[in-house]
ABC transporter ATP-binding protein
Amino acid sequence: MAQLKTTKPASGLAKPHLQLKQLRRSYGHQTVVKDLDLHIAKGQFLALLGPSGCGKTTTLRMIAGFEQPDAGSIYLDEQLLADAHRSVPPEERGMGMVFQSYALWPHMSVGDNVGYALKLRGVKGADYTRAIDQALEQVELAEKRDAMPHQLSGGQKQRVALARCIAAQPRVILLDEPLANLDRHLRSTMETAFRQLHRQSGATFVYVTHDQAEAMALADEIAVMHQGQLVQRASPQHIYRQPRTAWLARFIGQGSVLKMEAAAPSANHAQGTGQCIGDSAWLHMAIAHALPDSRKPQAEILVRPEHVHVHAAGQGAGLPARVLDCIFKGERYALRLALALPGAQELQAYSQQPFVVGSPVAIDIAQAWTLQSAA
Ligand SMILES: Nc1ncnc2c1ncn2[C@@H]1O[C@H](COP(=O)(O)OP(=O)(O)OP(=O)(O)O)[C@@H](O)[C@H]1O
């Protein structure tokens, strides 16, 4: 692999950001990252989200410099970091990486682990000690400075790994499933720590995860990958409310993808993908007409459980349905319902009251989102 020497951007006024341009990487005959275009603004917290094997880690490793692209290029500011012919070595990219496995040196104290990169850079004496103390304070582990890694809990080890990363003051911090080894309670504590550190450090964060809840809780924007390609990139709110494809709608959050008749009678709604339908009466009609053997065109819509109102059968109008499941979730009940219509389409709903499994109900769908056909 030819190695590029680090060169500063030509202009100090250049707008700094990380750019992946038409990035491609294959292993044997399998192309795992396919012409990926991604621009990440300075100081942004971007989550790279997708199911196992979609190419997230390979993308992160190319940004870090552990893998070289087969085609395309990676720029930081205006500096070319890598393309198919050249690659700046990882240690010259000004990036830090936090792994799922913590990757602490077992024979070094917490303080020495945190200061490792600084020592390599020749930082010594009071500056070295101050940088370690500051980084450990940021992750609230100042009292563990002299402890050894084996004396720490999983969450503490991950915070040391973060402190080590921050102490080196990287421009970009790359995180590969850093919370995957932690229990649920610790994960939410660590999510708070990540958000604080992101704000304090001002660094650009690129965070790989397959957990949508984690991506939504942490990131300003989410880039969803599927089979090596970018499916959608937007804010968590946008991706949740307006997923582009049926695949993404199913992948992100709770919700049901229902079929409805694309050209329902009395429809004065424009048809097509990427639209919010808020007319309940029209929605009910279009869903009721989605006969499984219909020759008329069918469309797919996303219905989130919070938009489904359930009441006992006979108490008001609505689509007829039957309760398949009713699970107590603490603050509410989660229902699984089957429409009592041809096709028996299933959907999810929330309710403040329990419903008996098997009982007939009526449902109102307040809004839905039209989708592209399944990817
Ligand atoms: N060094 C390698 N040699 C061969 N195949 C590889 C190599 N690294 C990754 N792959 C394959 O590339 C595909 C993408 O892997 P990658 O680790 O990028 O996915 P991922 O989205 O991060 O998945 P996970 O969430 O499971 O880590 C997988 O099919 C994987 O088996």
User: Anything to note?
Assistant: The domain at 14-242 is CATH 3.40.50.300 (Rossmann fold).
